[in-house]
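Proteins fold reproducibly. Next comes an illustrative record:
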Amino acid sequence: MAILVLEASTSAAKAMVYEPQKGVVNMITRMYPESVSDGSTIEADGMMAMIFEIGNEAAAGYDIEVVALNCTWHSVLITDSSIRPKTRILTWAWRDASAIAMPIRANEELTRTLYYETGCMPHAIYPLYKLMLLQQQDMIKPDDKVLDQGSFLYHRLTGELRASTSLISGTALMNTHNLDWNQHTIEMAGISVNQLPELQRYSKENTYATLLPEAARLLGVKPGIPVGLPYPDGSMNQVGAGALKPGIMTLSVGTSGALRVTSDKPILPQSPGTWCYYAPDRYICGAATNGATNCVDWFKITFSPEMSYKEMDNMVLRADMSTPPTFLPFLYGERCPGWMDSRRGGFAGILAAHRLPELYTALLEGILFNLYQCYELLTTATDAPYEIRISGGINNSRIWSQMAADLWNQPLRIAKSSQASLLGGAAMGMAALGLINSPEDFEGDRGLPSEPNPENSELIRARYQQYLEFYQQGNC
């Protein structure tokens, strides 16, 4: 008995086979080619071809009993009435709607109204503002369907048009209090509920459909097995880390960064700044950043294309940070804490003596500094967590994860796997098979402790204050 977890992320297709008695028994990750993803948009049919391809490879030789689906938050896909794509999938990184969101965000009263209705700040990442722009461009017809990466994936596997409340909570189109479509923002988007997928809350009984014969053939598995509703990777990260329980915060440092805690009710501070989405069966309050390992990839391509990531890590050991440069990680704009779409990043305080080791160290620190800003904001709205669990690409670098422990100046739990979201998908599959009562019962990957170095903590916290000074000055 095995669970096949398929994940369509921003930059890659992933497949994991999970056996409840053994854990992860197979996993494949394949980056999208440039013809499929340009970093901010994804060609839908090309994405599906890769999902089927790696799913087939991963599942070969295993008795797959259920398929779980992961995707990303904040995407938009317009299709015709026959679910043929008319646009590319517009991901969270697509910023063309900035000019729509910024004047709305400048209106404090409207911003508060939208925030308290949806849990989402006015910002270009959210589908509401993408749809408003597409309406201006006359890209949406009355009989078109307004979907996303996950609901398109689900339709191709099952023939059904449904979406989880967890996925839709990151669109600014759902009311965060009653977990139903929010009529105010749907009207702002210029669409109707009939154009949207059916909204579905989590339960073990009704969040699964059966796998179509053609999809089963392409995956190389049995037709008719259950296929779970797609859940966003951020939500599944929380499940996979075993962090649906109160008092546990997750710190995810992947393509983008995020901190998340769960709650039984929406957490919406008087001064909007954090976001509030929904997990399988409870709320997630959090803060997210646009710049994380995508900044690392930018640095590698730009300054050290011949180096391996391990060699880049080793540069940190040679860095002279006595008079350090500062990196502002806003190459892709800003989400939390300032929500400034137009903010730009780069290096500040550079001296002639600075070389690649100093610049790369500053880059890794700057990514963490932005996340620590978010942590300070988040803990004004929620209680400080008793435990923080780290996942994502940062866990491939002991040096970088140690930096995080030093900055937070407390022990952090470093996940043994960098794929917490896929483990979350496995938990959803286990619930479908009746092996656990709910996703909250999944123990997850608590990880190993990383203790802070007191001397390094003092130094990196001093550099954080320098970062804040540059941040307050605005763009580089």
